[in-house]
Amino acid sequence: MTLRSLPHHQRLGRSGLVTSRLWLGGMSFGNPGGRPWVLDDAGAARLVSRAIELGINTIDTCDVYSSGRSEEAIGRAIGRRGQRDRLVLCTKFGWPMSPDADVNARGYSRKHIIRACEDSLRRLGTDYIDLYQTHIWDPSTAIDEMVDALDRLVASGKVLYAGATDMPSYHLAKSVYSARFRNRAEFVSMQFHYNAVWREAERELIPFCREEGIGLVAYSPLARGFLCGSGRATRRTATDDRIAIWYGRDADRDVAEMIGQVARERGVSPAAVALAWTLGRPGIVAAAVGPTDAAQLDDLHAAMALQLDDEETARIDARYAARAAAGHG
């Protein structure tokens, strides 16, 4: 079997790891008492099972999602399926697990990275993590220390690949070259905030990753539901305060309106067009999505067959207005 026979899968950067073009995100798993759109164990298990049935082989979570309960829910769901080795299991580290966490239980120190990995392995019920990713950048720890800790985990077999998420491009470059010039395990992926209304990574991050062979994974391809159309309100769009903060400009609404217009012309959902826009961008390997029920996941999976033509893409792009250069916030 070759990648040509698996159109919904791609190799992650220059690594040998093959992932589905849709990643099932675990932010909506774990503790329904925290946010109304977070699923309990049963709901998480249904989504994991449906993802596997659809051929989605990659599940992405983080140690702090629902204070570790997301990892636990995913671990139990995978344990019941008994298909661990067929899956690409990804998680992240960096944030403290609680406001009163120990001073060394955060950031990118060797002490925290090793302990955080052991804790994630226990919660996930597995003896290895396919892709272990930085979560939030820690400017106070020497980059070489972070790189060495990840390399140690890769050498031990507890982690197969190291990846990164949102960080300044110059920090990513320093991390890549720290690993390369000292013969350590390099980042094989960058997961970052990217969709038709949030494109700031096109300035530096995307060109750097493409040049260095780092696999690009977009999260929030639907802008947390903002690009799903005004008639498709969900539990998340109704309660997620980040939507108004990140996507509250008139220009953002103009982009969403054009996505809706293209969707009507195509006879598909706005979500399908938004996802097709993201997956069609140069260098994008996959998109991490966070559906809260099987029907949403089915729709997103079906949407992978949609390809926008140049004219449709240009109409959407014409509505975009660049943001002032700044951090993710």
Task: Describe the protein's topology.
Blueprint lengths: L8 E3 L6 E3 L1 E4 L15 H13 L4 E3 L8 H13 L6 E6 L16 H15 L4 E6 L8 H14 L2 E7 L3 H13 L5 E7 L11 H8 L2 E5 L15 H5 L2 H5 L3 H17 L3 H10 L4 E6 L4 H10 L6 H9 L11
Parallel strand pairs: 3-4, 3-10, 4-5, 5-6, 6-7, 7-8, 8-9, 9-10
Antiparallel strand pairs: 1-2
Helix pairs in contact: 1-2, 2-3, 3-4, 4-5, 9-10, 9-12, 10-11
Q: How would you describe this protein?
A:
This protein is α/β, with parallel strands linked by helices and 329 residues long. The protein has one domain: NADP-dependent oxidoreductase domain (TIM Barrel, Alpha-Beta Barrel), CATH 3.20.20.100. 40% of the residues lie in helices and 15% in strands. The protein is built from 12 helices and 10 strands. It has helices at 41-53, 69-81, 110-124, 143-156, 169-181, 205-212, 235-239, 242-246, 250-266, 270-279, 294-303, 310-318, and strands at 9-11, 18-20, 22-25, 58-60, 88-93, 129-134, 159-165, 187-193, 215-219, 284-289. Strand 6, helix 4 and strand 7 (159-165) form a beta-alpha-beta unit. The chain starts with 8 loop residues before the first strand and ends in an 11-residue tail after the last helix. The mean pLDDT is 91.
